[in-house]
Amino acid sequence: MSSEGISQPMVVSEEPLSDSVLSMATAGELASPLVLMRQLSLAISAAELSDDERQLLGKRLSLTSERALRLASSLAMATNAQQQLPLEPINPLSVCQDVVHELSPLFTAHGQKIILRSRTRVPLLVGNRRVLQQILMSFGDNALQYCTEKSPIRMTITSHGKFVRIGVRDYGPAVPIDIWQKIDERVARRASAPIATRPTTSAIGLITARRLAKMMGSAVGHIRHRDGATFYIDLNISGQMSLL
Amino acid sequence: MSTSVLIIESEPWLGDHYESILRKEGFCVDRASHAYAAMDMVDKKMPSAIVMSLLLSGTSGIGLLHELQTYVDTSQIPIVVYGRYTDITLEDLEPYGVRRFLDSAIMRPEDVVAAVRSVALGTL
Q1: Beta bridge partners of A237
Q2: What is the biggest distance separating any 2 CA atoms in chain A, rounded to whole angstroms?
């Protein structure tokens, strides 16, 4: 149990959502960034903009499209790869550094920050690098806008005996205890709205993260804090090095 | 004195966009990113109109609309709501003081300006 909050382990169940339902829900959820992109492109085409304003809007347009593409890629990965994923020993620190580097321009453009907190030496994990990256990107995208100037989004790597937990801590509105069940229900009834209380959080992002984690034999979950939440993935430590 | 408009939008870049187009048309614009901030702002300064999304951080937009209807003075504020809800109509929202409903999938900047002018100044 965390000293900061109450851990809510994911209820392990059969995948309740079919690919077609998930795809339809994704189409609905992609409407949000598309609406923003459309408005930004309409703004760019306005005649009275200065060069600086046009450049700023262009940057926002490109970052929004990248975020939408990440969501689409994540779904494609989760629905296409039904076969067993190739697993290998991976360095979590290097994966997290890549994710933070990749997401930093988006956070900076929103006047926010994402940082990595970890010990210098962390054990190797068993997983798939690309898939892990995708999951952490989803957590990072969802955390955007839920930090403060003094409390940036923190990606943390912590050892817990035989597994390592990689978490993304935010400072947004409270998430429900049964969030995983709620997002399944919401998507199953094709409700277009994302997670209640967090309009910029993607239910599809969390569902695909859960699917991708399961494909790696790992699990995702969340911890509720007084002032936010941590979404995490637990991965087994690689035993390869211990054999040397 | 210019007409004051309160924009309530949790997506900051969309909020920036609507603020920019309304300012360019001469409106005095305030911003709130969630329902609680919006209620605080309304308490301090009554806007001539509210432009808002139904998807807000924390309390939902419907919760805010309901709260605004609870008080005699705030229930008089004309509201423009935008969203991409296929199953919600203006008739559903009218009891909450909503005068215009814009479909964000097809609305253009001039639609926002026209809607605000219409509800705040009574011009079409």
Answers
A1: A125
A2: 67
Question: CB atoms < 10 A from the CB of A68, how many?
Answer: 20
Instruction: For B75-98, give the DSSP string.
Output: GGS-EEEEE--TT--HHHHGGGTE
How many CB atoms neighbour CB A233 within 10 A?
26
CA distance B108 to A232: 40
Tokens found for residue A189: 């009834």
| Average pLDDT of the residues of chain B | 89
Whether residues A40 and B10 touch (CB distance < 8 A) is answered with no
A145/B contact by beta carbon, under 8 A: yes
User: pLDDT tens digits, residue range B17-45?
Assistant: 999 999 999 999 999 988 889 999 999 99
CA-CA distance, A152 to A145, in Å (whole number)? 10
Integer Cα distance of A57 and B26 in angstroms: 21
pLDDT tens readout for residues A150-188:
889 999 999 888 899 999 999 988 888 888 888 888 777
Domain extent at residue A106: 5-243
Residue among B40, B34, B33, B38 nearest B12 (CA):
B33
pTM over 0.90: no
Q: What is the number of domains present in chain A?
A: 1
How, if at all, do strands B98-103 and B79-83 pair?
parallel
Nearest to B104 among A35, A173, A196 (CB): A35
Cα pseudo-dihedral A28, A110, B15, B47, rounded to 10: 140
Contact list in B for residue A194 (CB cut-off 8 A) is 55
Q: How far apart are CA A230 and CA A221, in angstroms?
A: 8
Comparing A26 with B4, the larger pLDDT belongs to: B4
By CA distance, what is A61's nearest residue in B? Answer: B13
- What count of other Cβ atoms lies within 10 Å of the Cβ of residue B124? 7
Q: Does domain B4-121 have CATH number 3.40.190.10?
A: no
- The residues near A25 (Cβ < 8 Å, ≥ 6 apart) are A17, A187, A190, A203, A204
Domain CATH for A137: 3.30.565.10
H-run or E-run covering A212:
helix A203-215
Position A37 scores a pLDDT of: 95
